[in-house]
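Consider a protein example.
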Amino acid sequence: MNESAQTIVLPMASRSSSQRVDGVDVFRLIAIFAVICLHTMLVYLPKNLDLHTVWNWVIFFVLQSARFAVPFFFSISGYFWGQKIRKGVSVAAATIPMAKRLGVIFVFWCLIYLNKMKINTVFEYGLLGPLKFIYWSLLEVASHPCDFLLNGDAIHLWFLPALLCSLGITAFFVAWKQYRLLIAVAVALYLIGLLARAYAVTPMGLHLTHGSYTFNTRNGPFFGTLFFVSGYFLSGVTPRREWFRWGMGLLFVGLTLHMTEVFLLWRIYHSAFDQQDYVVGTVAMGIGATLVALSKHRFLNNRFMAQCGRYTLGIYCVHLVFVILLDPLAGQLYPAIGEIVFPVVVLALSLVSVQLLSRFRFTRRFVQ
């Protein structure tokens, strides 16, 4: 594998197993399953979701518990990027290959998702249905080019340009050795992101709107930079087994604060609690998850899971294909059953497909 791939947040297997941290790969698998649960649960969410039933409380808990995953991916990416620099690689040499690789992967999967996998377009619009759908998707891209650059054309692809933004900002300040300013910028971006997203409904909220268009601060550098920077600074500290205990403590505190914030925003300001992904408590969740993953604790000593976790980048990119294709079938299952079976099936199919794609030289670059 290209050496630079280790700096990407979700790398595939390297040629030398000694270069990898099995605990991180195990935790990557746990995190990607959490992401899949978030996306598959959308099939079963009630139209008017509130917290007046026990089942909706279960949905609330599962949805918000899974929010540690993407912050963890940002943070662990910053960690491995930082490790390369601390081993003597220049900032440019560590950054440019990673940036190019992220860009190639983003463009490829944007092309794949142009048709949104809507196979039934053949039945609705004839043999040219898929081409018509692609044409309509391109028109939508042309009408909102900024959204496309920061979000792509699928709900999960925003992560790749957000990681690219976080990488660029961090690399700039690290190259100039402006570490305190880097922390200040990362915190400021996160606060702006909060005030314009989760806390936009409060009196202190920001409203980044122009006509009917509202900018989504989930996209771009606002949230990812702080986690990426935290990973970079963690790369300068030798991991210890105590990190597992400290990380679990941070995860618990962060999750409690995260859920409390989301609940109060719903209770007081009537925000949609199922759509909130970043609040203040999320910071502790992301950093705590990273500490747990790096702790090398025996709890994370599972060779099979570590092997599967090495395919996480590909799983992240491809899993929505199966979510979309299986959506009609999953919708027929009873929610309590479907919410267990659906994510497991999507994870299994994604893992198998990525393993197959990684066997071919051309497609390997897009899944590892």
Notes: Residues 3-364 form one domain. Residues 242-269 form the longest helix (28 residues).
